[in-house]
Amino acid sequence: MLISRYERMIARRYLLPGRSEAFIAVVAGFSLVAVMLGVAALIVVMSVMNGFRAELFDKITGLNGHAVVQGYGGQLRNWRDIVAQAKATPGVTSATPLIEQPLFASLGGRVEFAQVRGMRVEDIRNNPTLKGKEVLGSLARLQPGQEQVAIGSRLAEKLGATIGSKITIINPAGSSTPFGTMFRTVSYTVTAIFEVGVYDFDQIFVIMPIEDAQTLLLLGDAVSMVEIDTVDPDRVQQIIAPLNDKVQGVGQITDWRQMNRELFEALAVDRIVSFTILSIILVVASFNIVSSLIMLVRSKTRDIAVLRTMGATRGGLMRIFVTVGTTIGGLGVAAGTVLGFLFITFRAQVVQLIGLVTGQQIWDPSMRFLTELPAKTDPFETIGICVMALLFAFLATLYPAWKAASTDPVQVLRYE
User: Fold this and answer.
1) Separation of first and last alpha carbons in the chain
2) Helices marked H in 134-242 — which ranges?
3) Which of 105, 295, 297, 406 could bridge 114 with an S-S bond, Cβ 3.0-4.6 Å?
4) Please, are residues 192 and 155 in contact by the beta-carbon 8 Å criterion?
């Protein structure tokens, strides 16, 4: 929108009204603050939602892959052939044999549920979700046949375990005796304690070399599943489609969407609802802009009439008031963007501060899955939020600007 020099001058004067019009300035200030808070809230919430989904996706697929081939009866005897066929499939980046079984872990009279996972030593060391996540000890110390394990940090807290502790893994499917089935118990030395950042994983996982897991579960040379990673997780179904016929009768393929459908669908719905509700703040801010401009038009009626008699056009007056309103909105958008990024940058400190003030734990890992508040800002989404806020501010100026342009100078100045 092109605006002339004198129109810019008048718009600047109207943005900074005099002392007699201080109330209008206060209302305009509230409008700016409302836009700022709305933009900041949208940027923060959408970034947190994006970060939450991205972190969950990375952690879940990092440990469970983009898809898994699960054997019927929990066993894959020909897993080497399946691994070879998977690696030969275009689009598949890796195929990893796994053993996973829910069992129990015990130490010093404490018994906790544990998800025992057996992996090849090289896969444990190179897994991106586990690599570098040791709290104590080192995953590199795990060796087959040495009865060594790595456990999650939350499980270690529950058991009271540390490096060098001897924990007992209890397998209910033990050997049969005349007196019934005897539980199979094996003691392992804790050589590493890790924290991947997902509460549910950190409180149950016990990782050991795959050979030791086969011995513990009496599987022989079998594994439970083969984990598959692809170049594009969003196209995982199309990429692994050629494997369906090859594993038919032996096992079934399940991708990450099927394994976590309810969780990611709930996140998508929550994201849409949060965006819709927080957008109402921008609508309210737009009404504030309308109110402040209507008050400004009413207080400047005589000035508008004088400008009309001096040759100002209706279009020029509309541009003046549209400029005033969009400037308020633009300043609010700029301030809201800065505030939003400051909140995202220092989100951990903000959460701690709120917790200290309220006396409540704002971010409970047991309820939120992740141990820390995540955030991932999408530049295009941020630009979209700013454009939407500016559009609302622009639309809010149209009616007051039209009212100003419709002022009849004859009626206003008749008795002057």
Assistant:
1) 34
2) 153-159, 199-202, 210-217, 236-240
3) 105
4) no
* Cβ(194)–Cβ(150) below 8 Å: yes
Strand partners, 185: 170
Are β-strands 225-230 and 67-71 bridged in parallel, bridged antiparallel, or unpaired?
antiparallel
Query: What is the chain's mean pLDDT, rounded?
Result: 83
pLDDT (tens digit per residue) in 286-300? 888 888 888 888 877
Strand-pair category, 67-71 with 251-255: antiparallel
Q: What is the mean pLDDT of residues 5-31?
A: 75
Q: Give me the DSSP letters along 309-324.
A: HTT--HHHHHHHHHHH
- One-letter amino acid at 341 equals F
Q: Rounded to whole angstroms, how far apart are CA atoms 36 and 342?
A: 13
Task: Provide the pLDDT for residue 165.
Answer: 92
Which bin fits 398, alpha (ψ -120 to 50), beta or left (φ > 0)? alpha
| Furthest-apart CA atoms within the chain: distance in Å | 115
Q: Please state, in angstroms and rounded to a whole number, the distance separating the CA atoms of residues 78 and 247.
A: 10
Q: Which of 28-42, 253-267, 377-391 has the lowest mean pLDDT?
A: 253-267
Contacts of 107 (CB under 8 A, 6+ apart): 159, 160, 161, 165, 166, 167, 168
With beta carbons less than 8 A apart as the criterion, state whether 192 and 165 touch.
no
Nearest to 402 by CA among 308, 297, 327: 297
pLDDT tens-digit map of 367-396: 566 667 778 888 898 999 999 999 999 998
What's the pLDDT tens digit per position in 195-233?
Answer: 887 777 888 899 999 999 988 888 888 888 888 888 888
Distance between CA atoms of 329 and 335, rounded to whole angstroms?
10
Using CA atoms, how far apart are residues 109 and 31, in angstroms rounded to an integer? 63
> For residues 345 and 339, what is the distance between their CA atoms, to the nearest angstrom?
10
Distance CA 305, CA 407 (A): 7
Alpha-carbon distance of 332 to 393, in angstroms, equals: 10
The rounded distance, in Å, linking the Cα atoms of 306 and 404 is: 12
Place of tokens 């001897």: 166
Across 27-47, average pLDDT: 88
What is the rounded CA–CA span in Å between residue 284 and residue 377? 25
pLDDT band at residue 305 using 50, 70 and 90 as cut-offs: confident
> Contact at 8 Å (CB) between 156 and 193?
yes
Place of tokens 């795959």: 210
- DSSP 8-state class, residue 381: H
